[in-house]
Amino acid sequence: MRFHFLGTGTSIGVPHLGCQCPVCRSADPHDRRLRTSALLQAPTGKYILFDCGPDFRQQMLRFQQRHGAESPHFPVGIYTYSLPVISACLITHVHYDHVGGLDDLRPVSYQHPIRICAEAPVAREIHSHMAYCFREKAYPGAPHLTLEEIRPGEGLSIEGLDVMPLRVMHGEAPILGFRIGTLAYITDMTTAPAESLEALRGVRTLIVNGLRLQRPHPTHQRIEDAVALAEQLGVDRAYIIHLCHGAGFHAETNALLPPHVQLAYDGLEIDV
Ligand SMILES: [Zn+2]
Ligand SMILES: [Zn+2]
Ligand SMILES: [Zn+2]
Questions:
Q1: Which of 272, 206, 249 is nearest to 29 (CA)?
Q2: How many CB atoms lie within 10 A of CB 266?
């Protein structure tokens, strides 16, 4: 399966707006990070989206530049569209950098509704923010989304894949990570309870957040913590996401890390 990193930045992206630090002024495109999100292509050819942040539209424009030729074409009125089929969006939590782009799923949902899979309190918040999408007589042109409540430890099936939601802690807030086969996707975590660490045993590819080097943060683990988790779980490889300017230059920081644990970057694709 192909895994696409759409965005690898923290909630405000990199560069931080207005910041004059060397990382924010870097000319290396690897140091420019949109808000964290990703796509996984299932063996059916259809996609699972991990969160849908405010950069989703920009990320899909980039994605289509690279993969547009593979996307199915379909008519919309007098126009022809070409977009990948996204079956479902797995929501980790309701912070704006993870749900702020849901309305931009509109064109992707023209042909079929998209399953929005979230925990009950998150689903309720999405429903109240976007009530126009869920009324019996929905606003014309609104995205076709179906809200689906999921729970940690209760698996669900998407495109023939077994998806297991896992509890992780985002500071004080309980949020979700996901395991699909030997892949795990965890963002915005500080700690994971013992049962989630147990459920991560056997994961080969870990995608996990690490905000920056050295300085602790109340609601995000550091790059050092992500490296330690990769070691603890004994994964083959780990990719670090949700990075801020404190992560340093992409190339410099990666040179300091063990070769099997690296900072991800926007546009990176891996086979899992
Ligand atoms: Zn976030
Ligand atoms: Zn900066
Ligand atoms: Zn968050």
A1: 249
A2: 26
Question: In the 8-state DSSP scheme, what is residue 191?
Answer: B
What sign has the CA pseudo-torsion 201, 271, 181, 59? positive
Distance 38 CA to ligand 1 centre (A): 13
Helix-strand-coil split of the chain, %, nearest 5: 25, 30, 45
Q: In 111-226, where do the E strands start and end? A: 114-118, 145-149, 156-158, 161-170, 173-180, 183-186, 205-209
Supply 128's token pair.
Answer: 């109240």
Looking at domain 2-264, its CATH architecture is: 4-Layer Sandwich (3.60)
- Full-prediction pTM beyond 0.70? yes
- Gap between the Cα atoms of 46 and 34, Å rounded: 23
Each domain of the chain, given as residue ranges in start order, spans 2-264
Q: How far is the CA of 137 from the centre of ligand 1 (A)?
A: 33
* Rg of the chain, C-alpha, whole Å: 18
The model's pLDDT over 105-148, given as tens digits with 9 standing for 90+, comes to 999 999 999 999 999 999 999 999 999 999 888 777 899 999 99
Structure tokens at 115: 């399953």
Torsion (CA) 144, 147, 152, 155 in degrees, nearest 10: -60
Counting ligands in written order, the one closest to the CA of 175 is: 3
Both structure tokens of 26? 């870097």
